[in-house]
Amino acid sequence: MAKKMAAERAVEFVEDGMMVGLGTGSTAYWAIQRLGERVREGLKIQAVGTSERTEALAQAAQIPIVDFSRVAQLDVAIDGADEVSRDFALTKGGGGALLREKLVASAASRFIVIVDDTKLVRYLGKFPLPVEVVPFAWQLTKKRVEAAGCRSTLRMHEDQPFVTDNHNYILDCDFGEISDPASVHGYLKALPGVVETGLFINMAYVVVASDGQQVALHYPDAG
Ligand SMILES: O=C(CO)[C@H](O)[C@H](O)COP(=O)(O)O
C-alpha cells in the first residue's frame, strides 16, 4: 500500500504532452498502472521504459512507448529506489535495471523517486550496492571492485549469472555504511569493466515517500 500511494502521488506530476521516463520494480509498477488509467481517460503522453519488463507493462497499460534513441529530453522520470540517504543519494539496481534507469533519469528535467518510507536511511549501505560489469573478465573486475573496500557477490538467476537487458552481469557489493557515495562511485566507475554503479547522486528532484497512511514529499532544495 505504501508503494502504491507514493507511486500514485508521483503520477500527479505528469501533464498532457509530456515525455515520461518509466522506472522498473514493484513501486514503479503502480506508477505505470495509474499512468495507464490516466492515458485511457485521455491523457496524451509518450514514454520510454527503463527495462524490457517495464516496456511490456506500459504497452499492456496502453501507454505509448517510444524508442529512447529518438528522445533528446524527458519532462519527468518516475522510478523507485532501494535506499535514499539523508542527502538524497540513492542506491538503485535491486531489479537489475540500473544502467537504463540512470540514463533515463539523467535525461529528465524532473526525476521523481518513489519509495515506501522504510527505504529512507541516514547513510546508504545496508542494501548491497549493485554494480553492472561486462561479462568479459568479470572475475578480475570483481577483485578490483573489492579493492574499493567491499565484499561482492555475482548476482545469480536460477544457477546462472543474472544477465541485464544490456547483456552484462551485476556484482552486489557490501560496503557497510557508505558515508561518501561520490567517491565510491568515482572509484568504481573508473575501473575497466565497470559499466555503471547503482549510486544516483544529486539526481532526485523530489522523493515521494509513504508509510501506507500518508504521503510526504521531500525536496533536496528545501535544505
Ligand atoms: O532500481 C530498481 C530496479 O533496478 C528499483 O527501482 C529498486 O530496486 C526498487 O525496487 P522496488 O520498487 O521493487 O522496491
Automatic annotation (TrEMBL):
Enzyme class of the recorded protein, top EC level: isomerase
PANTHER family: RIBOSE-5-PHOSPHATE ISOMERASE 3, CHLOROPLASTIC-RELATED
Annotated family: Belongs to the ribose 5-phosphate isomerase family.
Active site location: 101
Pathway(s) served: Carbohydrate degradation; pentose phosphate pathway; D-ribose 5-phosphate from D-ribulose 5-phosphate (non-oxidative stage): step 1/1
CDD domains: RPI_A
Gene Ontology MF terms in the entry: isomerase activity
EC number, UniProt record: 5.3.1.6
Annotated transmembrane regions: none
Function statement: Catalyzes the reversible conversion of ribose-5-phosphate to ribulose 5-phosphate.
UniProt binding sites for substrate: 24-27, 79-82, 92-95, 119
Catalytic activity: aldehydo-D-ribose 5-phosphate = D-ribulose 5-phosphate
HAMAP family, alphabetized: Rib_5P_isom_A
Protein name per its UniProtKB record: Ribose-5-phosphate isomerase A
Database matches in Pfam families: Rib_5-P_isom_A
Record keywords: Isomerase
